[in-house]
Design brief:
The protein is an all-alpha fold. It is 50% helix and 0% strand. It has 7 helices and no strands. Helix 1 packs across helix 6, helix 3 runs antiparallel to helix 4 and helix 4 packs across helix 5. The radius of gyration is 16 Å and the shape is globular. The protein starts with 17 loop residues before the first helix and ends with a helix.
Length: 129
């Protein structure tokens, strides 16, 4: 997550956090709008492990604003996230973003600055028909 004002505030997400980010903040490439008025800065300010737990409860049908607040979401936003209509949208976003499960070792052949086209092609072949 790039902070345009201060590069020192940039946040690097782990691969396991991408689905959480895309479901909550959206992704124009997937046409997922995310949660209105919950953007990268709000996401970066949260404890992502707790935010993930709160979203898991919501996805399971047990939205709890207090869990989102505990993660660092502002109270009014936490209430909006758990509103039945918005909670249903977030469930759908979570499902759409996670439709293609990646293997646990999907980045084992990725080395920053040294692309391995053969490893990338082999990985993609697993999902192509």
């Amino acid at each position: 997550i790039v902070d345009k004002d201060d590069v020192k505030k940039d946040v690097v997400l782990t691969p396991s956090e991408i689905r959480l980010y895309k479901a909550l903040c959206g992704d124009p490439s997937d046409r997922i709008p995310g949660m209105p008025r919950f953007g990268p800065k709000a996401f970066a300010a949260c404890n992502r492990a707790w935010l993930n737990s709160a979203l898991q409860q919501l996805v399971a049908g047990h939205p709890k604003p207090a869990l989102f607040e505990h993660a660092g979401v502002k109270p009014a936003m936490a209430q909006r996230m758990c509103n039945p209509e918005q909670a249903e949208q977030l469930r759908v976003f979570w499902k759409i973003v996670g439709f293609l499960p990646l293997p646990d070792d999907w980045q084992s052949n990725i080395i920053t600055g040294k692309p391995d086209r053969a490893a990338g092609s082999a990985l993609l072949q697993q999902f192509m028909h």
